[in-house]
Design brief:
alpha+beta, 5-stranded antiparallel sheet, 48% helix, WH-like_DNA-bd_sf, DNA-binding, Tscrpt_reg_LuxR_C, transcription, DNA binding
Length: 156
């Protein structure tokens, strides 16, 4: 956890936060831009702000910023940084790849391990239509197989 004052100066951090901060650090900045961005989004909000960012090593992190006084006045802010859950990363990737809602439906079923026939039955479409959608998903994600698709989306 990072503890920042109202001027976004670092007051305190635990060892884990130091490691994550180094993972996100940009040249010469005391605080990573991603941290400042999440803090800015939560500024004056009653609820914590949330963001996801990919670190230099390729690992995805989730960031949460919460005002400690709970009110709109500037005050200390706590920022937590943790490895992002695979579901959060998948959500970001689906948006980045530009998949249609139907392609996202299809992908969710592929990730769940359903065969084409079961996907077709659930979505009330033909197996050929499932294959057409999967070809489109493969093209958009740059993979050639279901296993590569699942690995790409889940970051395996």
């Amino acid at each position: 956890m990072l503890l920042l004052d109202q001027d976004l100066r670092l007051l305190s951090e635990n060892p884990a936060a130091k490691l994550w901060r180094d993972e996100l650090a940009s040249s010469g900045a005391k605080l990573p831009i991603a941290v400042l961005e999440v803090v800015a989004r939560g500024s004056g909000a009653a609820l914590p702000a949330y963001g996801r960012i990919r670190g230099r090593s390729g690992r995805w992190l989730s960031l949460h910023a919460s005002p400690l006084n709970g009110g709109p006045d500037p005050a200390s802010v706590a920022v937590t940084m943790n490895p992002a859950p695979a579901t959060d990363v998948a959500e970001v990737l689906l948006l980045a790849y530009g998949l249609t809602p139907r392609e996202r439906d299809m992908l969710a079923r592929v990730v769940a391990g359903l065969p084409s026939r079961a996907i077709a039955t659930e979505l009330h479409i033909t197996v050929a239509t499932v294959q057409d959608h999967l070809k489109s998903v493969f093209a958009k994600t740059g993979v050639r197989s279901r296993s590569a698709l699942v690995a790409t989306i889940l970051g395996l």
